[in-house]
Each structure stands twice: as structure tokens, then as C-alpha cells.
Amino acid sequence: MNQSNQNTPKPPLTNASEKEPIVVFTGAGVSAESGLLTFRDMGGIWNQYDVTEVASPLAWRRQPELVLQFYNERREKVIAASPNAAHYAIAQLEEKFDVTVITQNVDDLHERAGSSKVLHLHGEIRKVRSSLDSKLVYEWPEAHLVLGQLCEKGRQLRPHIVWFGESVFAMHEAAQLFGQAKKVLVVGSSLVVQPAASLLAYASFEAEKVLINLEHANTQGNYEYLQGSACEQVPTLVERWLI
Q: CA-CA distances (angstroms) from residue 30 to 19, 111, 117?
């Protein structure tokens, strides 16, 4: 197993400091167009499972095998999925800007599309960690994780996912990045999941801010609202910003 640093973004490009900093904040709507179910949309994952049985520390203590089965199914689908036009367009922004993607998604489609700095607030499905020491995080290229697969301290490995009742990763860092950004793009998020949704309030009033693919327009904080799918709207906006 290759141990990795928890939620550490990849190093920026050497000339990133000379580029204007921007933040792209993404939610499940971006990956939905790659065939990955959203958690709360009609027909989404939480309509098929009781969240208390598969995504909480209590569930892990009571039924670890069921929890592993649930995330194995999610991991299989992520491995089979491919980045879409929105993922690739977001990565293309690095040609001109110092881009940090802050995502609520647990898949690795941003990375596979070429984004070099990705901050995962809710964890990463293709990583696992020790159930004893949360600092022991490992890359996990395999589709399945099963009982009996242990960390170096002899304890069961668990999905590297933020469960209900656990603290979201890197909120302070994410808030700082929002505050420093000259441009902010929010795409594919319903903005109902807290505390992640509260990050939008940290963006500077002077920054150019755009919301795409939300259920309802949100004009707070001087955000421009664009209605439409991520694959339609993101490439168009990126083309505008790269001019």
C-alpha cells in the first residue's frame, strides 16, 4: 500500500504564483453527467439506503461489512466512470489561472481530467485509512475493500470518507482560498449540505463569481447565475475566462 497525505493538493505549477488565483467549487451535479448518481436527487443513492446503516460511525461499529459493501459499489462505479466536458474545461483553466478545485465529491474525476490542485471536503473514495489512526491514509486502486485488510498498526482499513457525524476536511483552508480568489465558479452543488455550502460567504465581494446548474438562483453575494447543465455551461464560461 502506498501511504498518501490526507487531502494534500498536488504541488502547484512553478509559475502559479504569477497567475490570478481562482476557486472552482463543485458538487455532485458535475459528476452526474459522467454517470455517477447524486446522493439527494430523485433516484439518488440515499433513496436506496438508510444513511444510518451505511454512512455513520455507528453503522461502522454495528455492520462494517455492509458499510464496506456500500462503498465498494460506489468505488466500482467511480473506477468505471470517465471525466466529462465540465471536468476537462475546469482543468483547462490552469492555462491562465492558479486554480484550486474545492469539491464535495469523493470521486477522482477532476484529477483524471488534469486538475492539479483538488481539495476534497468529504473524502476520497479511492483512498482508505486506518480505523485507529486517521493520519494513516492510503491510495486504494482496487475496487473492493474487505474485512481483514489492515493498516500497518494492525487495525481494519475503512473508506477515506467523511461520514455523518464526522468533521468535514480542510474547511479552514477552503475558506481562506475562497477569500483570496479573484474568480469563483460554483457548479453542480445544491448548496444544502453544510458546512461546505457556507464557504460561498467567504468569497470577496469584488471577485467575479458565477453559479451554474443549481436548482434555484442565488443572488446573494453578487453571484452571476447561469442555468443549464455543467457540460453545457462550464466549457462556455471557461472559454470566456481564457480570452
A: 25, 13, 17
Which residue, among 144, 114, 166, has the nearest Cα to 10 in the 3D structure?
Answer: 114
**Helix crossing, 230-242 with 85-92: angle to 10°?**
20
- Domain-wise residue ranges, the chain: 3-10+18-242
Residues in the chain: 243
pLDDT in tens, 95-153: 999 999 999 999 999 999 999 999 999 999 999 999 999 999 999 999 999 999 999 99
Question: Among 112, 118, 120, 107, which Cα is nearest to 88's?
Answer: 112
Report the CATH number of the 3-10+18-242 domain: 3.40.50.1220
User: Which residue is it, cell 460561498?
Assistant: 200
Model pTM greater than 0.85? Answer: yes
Active site residue ranges: 122
